[in-house]
Structure formats: C-alpha cells, structure tokens
C-alpha cells in the first residue's frame, strides 16, 4: 500500500482515478479547490481525505511536504482550450505555476513519483502523422497545450535534478460519467445533457473534425498502471481511432433523442482539425490498452446522465 496525493481528485477524471487507487488499497489524499470538481464525485469514497486547497497556495505546498507521499497524481488544471486562448496568463498560472508549487513540496522527497495528466489531444497541434506517436513534432495550437508541454519539461527537470521521477500520460479526448456538462470542455457531456432534455445540439465547425475518444475508466486504469510500474516518460493514452464530431453527435442522438436537431456554427480558435494518438508505447511499457469500445462507452455515459436528470 502506498500513500498517494491526487490533485484535482474531486473532478471528472480525478475522481475515477481515486476509485482505481482505492481498489488497489492505496491511502488516498485529494487536494482540490472544488472550482469545477465537487464533493459529490467523492461521496462514495469514504476513506479518502479531502484537503480543500488551491494548488497555487503555500498551504497546498506545505500539505504535500507534510503528507510526504510516495506518489502524486497531478490532475488539477484549467482544462478549457478556449479559456486558455482568452486568458493565457490564467492558464499558465494554474497549469504551470500550480504544478511547480506542488512539485516544490516534493523537492526533498527523492524516490517519490509523479503521474501527470498531460494532453495528447493538445500538445501535438495539427498532426502530420496519424495516429501520432510520442515522438511526433510538438506544436501546440493553444496555450493550454503549451502549458501541458511545459509541465512535462518541469517534470523532466525535477527527475534529473531532485530524483523525483514521473510518468506523463498524454490523454486524448476523455469522456464518461461525472464530466461537467456546463464547462467549456467535454463535448460528449454537453451533447448528452442537451439531448436528454430533447434540445438541439450545436457542432462548432464543419463536424468533420476528428477526435480520439477514450473512456474515463480506461484512463483511470492507465494511471493505476503508471503507479504500479513507476514507468518513466511520456505515454499516449487513447484508442488510436479517429471519430468525427458529426459521427459522435449522430450516435448520441440515436441513443437519446432521435428527432433532435444537429446545428453547425463557426469553428473556435485553438481547436484542431484532426486528432488521434498512437497507444502502442503504453501497451508495451504500461501493459495498458483501452477496454471499453466507443458504443459501449457512450451507452454507459448516456445511462449515467439519464440518472442525473
Ligand atoms: N477531459 C479531457 O478530455 C482531458 C484530456 C487531456 C488531459 N486532461 C487533463 O486531465 C486533468 C483532469 O481534467 P478533467 O477533465 O477531469 O477536468 P475537471 O475540471 O473535472 O478536473 C479538474 C479538477 O481540478 C480542480 N482544480 C482546478 N483548479 C484548481 C486549483 N487551482 N487548485 C486545486 N484544484 C483545482 C477542479 O476543482 C477539478 O476538480 C486535467 O489536468 C486536464 O488537463 C483532460
């Protein structure tokens, strides 16, 4: 049993990670300011200790020092591409300074290991190869993608300088239960909620843009494998499959409100045309592969949002 701090553990992906870590009998502490996460996401996890703190604060750094964990899973972040383009300094403050503050609490803890939730959807930028491997050129189209790459660089520095090793998981587009449908990110959640209320949905752009949709429990399992193996480096966590946003919209409509309208609007700045990442390195080094196929994942997700209506 190890002691694990999960920043952002009250959020969508973070709370599923907490579930996976508890299932492996780890002692779990969550640091979260509840800005987009919620206590409800952890209501079933009675053994978790929640520290309501901002990752940028001195208190959060001291909490990490005091807890002296074996692992930190860093999931707390500003997650919206659009906000990162409108407010670049805010994105940097949360995603870079916040990470560095948490890492500062680990400086004297050689041998501890960080699992960082990076983004395979955002750091490669407009891809030149499909699916993208980890050595694909890195040219983020958004400040959000840039902040994730900078985070990976800080981790590499911490490892080289202070012996705090790390695994960066470059996630594709994650979907599933507990995703916030009111945020800027999370097209599956946004569509689900509107369709279940029998409302029209709006696709930004032509709908021909593609994404690599990975189910949240598969992502949580990848974090579990990173903790089990302490595998060092960057790994894509996705399905290696491309799905158009129009296909997603049509599949969800068929499952929920077959007569609802699908509308189209202007594409948003910072959004890529095609995104799909190669998961073969994670298969080989983390013994991880996605288990939930797209149709099955959408059905689970729709069923969960159905219970929230
Ligand atoms: N959702 C995706 O498709 C996706 C894809 C790639 C990477 N990621 C990364 O995964 C991580 C989790 O994303 P998510 O989709 O679960 O988003 P989320 O908004 O549900 O989770 C983020 C959590 O961080 C917390 N948080 C935000 N700012 C904080 C602060 N200053 N101090 C403390 N806590 C703070 C929020 O309250 C929330 O609980 C993020 O790092 C995100 O960049 C997500």
CATH-wise, what's the superfamily of the largest domain?
NAD(P)-binding Rossmann-like Domain
Give the topology string: H per helix, E per strand: EHEEHEHHEHEEHEEEHEEHEHH
Question: What is the overall shape?
Answer: globular
Strand content: 15-25%
Rg, rounded, reads 18 Å
Number of helices: 10
Describe the largest sheet: 7 strands, parallel
Work out the number of β strands.
Answer: 13
Estimate the mean pLDDT confidence.
Answer: 96
The low-pLDDT segments are: none
Provide an overview of this structure.
This protein has 309 residues and is an alpha/beta fold. The protein folds into 2 domains: 3-175 and 215-240 and 276-291, NAD(P)-binding Rossmann-like Domain (Rossmann fold, 3-Layer(aba) Sandwich), CATH 3.40.50.720; 187-209 and 242-275 and 298-308, Alpha-Beta Complex (UDP-galactose 4-epimerase, domain 1). 40% of the residues lie in helices and 18% in strands. The protein has helices spanning 12-23, 58-67, 81-86, 88-104, 143-162, 187-196, 216-229, 245-256, 280-286, 294-308, and strands spanning 3-7, 27-32, 49-52, 71-74, 113-119, 165-171, 173-175, 201-204, 210-211, 213-215, 233-237, 243-244, 262-265. A 7-stranded parallel beta sheet has the order 3-2-1-4-5-6-11, sandwiched between helices. Strand 5 (113-119), helix 5 (143-162) and strand 6 form a beta-alpha-beta unit. Helix 2 runs parallel beside helix 4 (88-104), helix 6 runs parallel beside helix 8 (245-256) and helix 6 (187-196) crosses helix 10. The longest helix has 20 residues, at 143-162. The radius of gyration is 18 Å and the shape is globular. The structure holds nicotinamide-adenine-dinucleotide.
